[in-house]
Amino acid sequence: MAIFLNENSKVIVQGITGSEGTKHTARMLRSGTNIVGGVNARKAGQQVEIEGQELPVFGSVQEAMKETGADVSVVFVPPKFAKDAVIEAIDAEIGLAVVITEGIPVHDAAYFWAHAGKTGNKTRIIGPNCPGIISPGKSNAGIIPADITGPGKIGLVSKSGTLTYQMMYELRDIGFSTSVGIGGDPIIGTTHIDALQAFQDDPETEAIVMIGEIGGDAEERAAEYIKANITKPVVGYVAGFTAPEGKTMGHAGAIVSGSSGTASAKKEALEAAGVKVGKTPSETATLMRGIVKG
C-alpha cells in the first residue's frame, strides 16, 4: 500500500516545457511514474519527447484531466505564476497537486490554500517548496531521488528535502511505503498530522518517521495528535538544535522567537507523546531500525 500516490496514479506536469519541468519529468519517468502529459497554455497542442516518450501538452489542467484521466499534477511553475497554476489545478478538482516551486510569496500560498478550503478541499496540496512524494516502486511525483531506497514498511513525513533523502538512504535496508516532503514554508497544504493519520490508516505502514525543524508549532501540535490518535510507533528528528534565536535558517518557516519553536521544546513535546527522538538523523534511523527489527 501507499498514501496519496500509488502505481495507478496518472500524473501531469504543469510547466513541463520549462528546464526544471523537463529535467524532473525525465527523472520521474525513469523511476516508473505514469506521466500522461503536461500543461503549458502557450504550447497547447504540441508534443514533447522526454525519455523516448511523446507526451502531449495541454492548454489547461481541466483539458489534461479530460483527455488523460490524470489525477495528480506536479507543479514546476516559476513563483510569480505559481498561484494561478495551483488555483487552476484546484478549480479542475484534480485529486493531488504537488507544488515543488520554491519562493512563492506567503500571501499567494495563503490564497490558494484558502481557495482549496473554500471549494471543498477536493484537491490535496503537498507543498509548496517541497521535494514531493514518492511511493518507491510505484510512483514518484517531484524531485526525490528514486534510487536511494526501495519499497518497505516505513512511512516518512518531513519538512526538509535533504533530510528526507538522508533518512530514506539510512533506512534503505528496510524501505518505505511512502515518503512525503511537506515543505518548510510558513503555509503548506498537507501537514505532519495529515500524513501521520494517513500512515496510521495504511495497513502496510508499520512504523513512522517524522522529521521537523525549528520554527512555528507544527511539531508540538503533531505531538498532541500522536498522543491522542496514533498507535503505530513513531520516531522523530528535529533539525536546528544549534540555530541562534531570532535567525531564519534555510526555510522561510524556520524562525525561533524566545522559547517558542526551538528544537528542544519540540523534542520535549514529542518525547512526552511517546515518540523516540534522535539527536542526529543517523541516531533517528538507528531508533527506527531497532523498532522494526525488534
From TrEMBL:
Pathway: Carbohydrate metabolism; tricarboxylic acid cycle; succinate from succinyl-CoA (ligase route): step 1/1. CoA binds at residues 17-20, 43, 100-102. Its EC number is 6.2.1.5. It comes from the Bacteria. Keywords: Ligase, Nucleotide-binding, Tricarboxylic acid cycle. Gene3D superfamilies: NAD(P)-binding Rossmann-like Domain, Succinyl-CoA synthetase domains. One of its GO terms (biological process) is tricarboxylic acid cycle. InterPro entries: Cit_synth/succinyl-CoA_lig_AS (IPR017440), Citrt_syn/SCS-alpha_CS (IPR033847), CoA-bd (IPR003781), CoA_lig_alpha (IPR005810), NAD(P)-bd_dom_sf (IPR036291), SUCC_ACL_C (IPR005811), Succinyl-CoA_synth-like (IPR016102). PANTHER family: SUCCINATE--COA LIGASE [ADP_GDP-FORMING] SUBUNIT ALPHA, MITOCHONDRIAL, SUCCINYL-COA LIGASE SUBUNIT ALPHA. Heterotetramer of two alpha and two beta subunits. This is Succinate--CoA ligase [ADP-forming] subunit alpha. It comes from Saccharopolyspora montiporae. The lineage of its organism: Bacteria, Bacillati, Actinomycetota, Actinomycetes, Pseudonocardiales.
